[in-house]
């Protein structure tokens, strides 16, 4: 019962994961569909510069992954647990990234250059570059898409079919780091030793892309240890409101934007890939509030949050291919009749609706595949195949 109770307490985090996916999707939509300078739509560009912070949302993903993947090691630090976790992580991710790349290949074949036509109207260079994944000079075939989703995005960070997949290399190797570090950190017991080890690891990986992002997963591991040992703080409604405001303030931080409100933070940040450290603090604050405030915990445990969590990974995977195909086509098809503003809104609605439509079956595939992997590795967790059973004594 204790395990079931703790598992149910984690439901709010699925809602948070879903909100982070929606933030990424909406941020990409504004950045890709909205002209850089357009009076009636400028409010959307301002929103993108503040709340629709895709980089911060990705850090939320990484911190959540560190939390969820570390938690089982609170009770089971066996070599079998470590090995099976390592073995199933790539298949768990690669199944959906492969489907996403094949899906993107199909949309490229069907839509041709609609995204370039749309970019020519809006003057959007990001859309014109196929969202920083230019097609020209690359092998655009179903076999190339298969290779890309199966292993290239993980080994090389190659994202020519689906640009959001740049996070998959970090997700995979960050997960591996968690599977190795979490058992050691849980075993240490002493918090000063734990924090010293984490600080030393963060210093060792440095601030260069992509190694620096391993720190996000370690922040999640710290939260997992607090949760497993019942050390998570509790928040009254007033304390929760203050913490959420502070979390959103940090979430809106961007090293690329000159927001005066963030000037004190920017003055302290060293050069390099360091903005994610600020976003990690934001993610940690929000996670602790969701788990430590009864009202928010109940709110984020409702069906809407559960469904949003189930759709989060599929939404993240398919929204860009849809935007660059059906979204761009709907923009071109309605721009003459509705004007740029109307065409952007139509393209946005088409992108969101079709993303949900295609995300639903992909969520079912993800759930089914995760269940298959869990059943496959359960045998090794209960009785590792590499441990020989003692021979039975012969009868006299």
Structure report:
By secondary structure, this protein is an all-alpha fold. It has one domain (2-382). 74% of the residues lie in helices and 0% in strands. The protein has 16 helices and no strands. It has helices at 2-9, 11-33, 42-49, 54-70, 79-111, 114-122, 125-128, 142-155, 167-188, 191-205, 214-228, 237-251, 263-268, 275-292, 294-299, 303-382. The longest helix has 80 residues, at 303-382. The radius of gyration is 22 Å and the shape is globular. The N and C termini lie far apart (46 Å). The model is unreliable at 1-5 and 384-396 (pLDDT under 50).
What's the domain count? 1
Number of beta-strand segments: 0
Based on secondary structure, the structural category is: mainly alpha
Note poorly predicted spans.
1-5, 384-396
- Shape, please? globular
DSSP summary: helix tally: 16
Helical fraction equals over 70%
Roughly how many Å is the radius of gyration? 22 Å
Mean pLDDT: 90
Oligomer: single chain
Q: Mind summarizing the main beta sheet?
A: none
Order of helices and strands: HHHHHHHHHHHHHHHH
Amino-to-carboxy terminus distance: 46 Å
Give the helix/strand layout.
Elements lengths: L1 H8 L1 H23 L8 H8 L4 H17 L8 H33 L2 H9 L2 H4 L13 H14 L11 H22 L2 H15 L8 H15 L8 H15 L11 H6 L6 H18 L1 H6 L3 H80 L14
């Amino acid at each position: 019962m204790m395990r079931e109770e703790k598992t149910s307490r984690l439901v709010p985090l699925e809602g948070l994961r879903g909100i982070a996916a929606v933030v990424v999707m909406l941020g990409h939509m504004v950045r890709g569909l909205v002209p850089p300078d357009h009076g009636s739509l400028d409010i959307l560009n301002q929103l993108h510069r503040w709340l629709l912070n895709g980089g911060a949302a990705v850090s939320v993903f990484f911190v959540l992954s560190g939390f969820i993947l570390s938690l089982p090691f609170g009770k089971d630090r066996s070599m079998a647990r470590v090995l099976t976790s390592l073995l199933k992580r790539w298949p768990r991710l690669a199944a959906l990234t492969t489907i996403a790349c094949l899906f993107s290949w199909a949309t490229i074949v069907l839509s041709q250059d609609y995204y370039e036509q749309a970019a020519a109207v809006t003057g959007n260079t990001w859309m014109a570059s196929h969202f920083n994944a230019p097609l020209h000079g690359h092998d655009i075939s179903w076999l190339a898409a298969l290779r890309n989703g199966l292993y290239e995005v993980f080994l090389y960070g190659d994202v020519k079919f689906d640009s959001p997949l740049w996070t998959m290399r970090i997700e995979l190797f960050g997960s591996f780091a968690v599977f190795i570090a979490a058992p050691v950190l849980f075993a240490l017991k002493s918090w000063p030793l734990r924090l010293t080890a984490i600080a030393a690891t963060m210093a060792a990986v440095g601030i260069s892309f992509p190694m620096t992002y391993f720190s996000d997963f370690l922040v999640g591991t710290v939260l997992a240890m607090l949760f497993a040992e019942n050390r998570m703080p509790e928040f009254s409604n007033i304390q929760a409101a203050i913490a959420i405001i502070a979390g959103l303030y940090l979430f809106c931080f961007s090293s690329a934007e000159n927001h005066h409100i963030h000037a004190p933070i920017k003055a302290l940040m060293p050069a390099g890939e360091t903005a994610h450290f600020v976003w990690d603090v934001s993610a940690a604050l929000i996670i602790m509030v969701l788990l430590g405030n009864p009202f928010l915990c109940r709110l984020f445990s409702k069906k809407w949050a559960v469904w949003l969590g189930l759709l989060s990974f599929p939404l993240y995977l398919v929204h860009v291919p849809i935007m660059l195909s059906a979204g761009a086509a709907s923009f071109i098809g309605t721009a003459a009749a509705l004007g740029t503003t109307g065409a952007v809104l139509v393209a946005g609605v088409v992108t969101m609706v079709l993303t949900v439509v295609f995300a639903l079956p992909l969520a079912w595939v993800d759930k089914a595949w995760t269940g298959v992997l869990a059943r496959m590795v359960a045998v090794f967790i209960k009785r590792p195949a590499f441990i020989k059973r003692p021979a039975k004594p012969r009868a006299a």
